[in-house]
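2024-03-11 09:14:02 DEBUG pipeline.ingest accepted 1 chain
2024-03-11 09:14:02 DEBUG pipeline.ingest length=99
2024-03-11 09:14:03 DEBUG pipeline.predict start
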Amino acid sequence: MIIRVVLPFHLRTLANLTGEVRLEVVDPVTLGSVLDALEAVYPMLRGTIRDHVTLKRRPFVRYFACKEDLSLEPPDFKLPDAVTSGVEPFLIIGAIAGG
């Protein structure tokens, strides 16, 4: 399956990308399998989205799909059909903090 992934500007710059990424991911398409595929194709992103060792999401990085925040879902969470069919993108967002 081809999954559309939208990265924040700084990660697109690091990976030398100009637009969204299209990744081939085998079924079942889970949060973890998409991130694994992204890091396999763009190894320079390893450690920027998830920790190298624990593979836990980095602070200030959020995951969204179909207007839903998936940031706290486990790696085996299946992505919505709209994402797996390519209708909707999977978004990786750099969160902003402060007050």
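2024-03-11 09:14:41 DEBUG pipeline.report Residues 2-94 form a domain with the Ubiquitin-like (UB roll) fold (CATH 3.10.20.30).
2024-03-11 09:14:41 DEBUG pipeline.predict end
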